[in-house]
Automatic annotation (TrEMBL):
It comes from Ciceribacter thiooxidans. It comes from the Bacteria. The keyword Transport applies. Its cofactor is heme. Keywords: Heme, Iron, Metal-binding, Transport. This is Group 1 truncated hemoglobin. InterPro entries: Globin-like_sf, Globin/Proto, Globin_bac-like_CS, Hemoglobin_trunc.
Length: 124
């Protein structure tokens, strides 16, 4: 029997590590860094974003987590995220997964999920 995507990501602990590494990747990415810098003075906000991201990824990958955050359009409305910024974030996701030794098939599944959200995130 094939392991679920959630299991291939390492379960809750693996997803938490991936999300922590992803936030660091975004902070290092010159294309999207400025969007995240204001939150560095608000550790409570950073923790909430990380928790929501872990819950979202856990839910989307078949884990027991239950995402209760805002919808993608509601979370990104008014941010005017560009195609370039979205692409930079996706590249960070894929690079972070690779650095965490997530297999190619699982990375492709995540890419499909993230790509499907583009219409709910870009230019809102």
């Amino acid at each position: 029997m094939e392991r679920s995507l959630y299991e291939r990501l390492g379960g809750a602990a693996g997803i938490t590590k991936i999300v922590d590494d992803l936030v660091e990747a975004h902070l290092s990415n010159p294309t999207i860094r400025a969007r995240f810098l204001p939150y560095l003075d608000r550790p409570d906000v950073v923790a909430e974003v990380k928790r929501h991201t872990c819950d979202f990824l856990g839910t989307a990958s078949g884990g027991p987590e239950c995402y209760k955050g805002r919808t993608m359009p509601d979370a990104h409305r008014g941010m005017n995220i560009t195609e370039e910024e979205f692409a930079a974030a996706v590249n960070d996701v894929l690079a972070t997964l690779e650095r965490n030794n997530i297999d190619e098939g699982s990375r492709a599944e995540i890419l499909g999920m993230v790509s499907s959200l583009k219409v709910e995130i870009v230019d809102l």
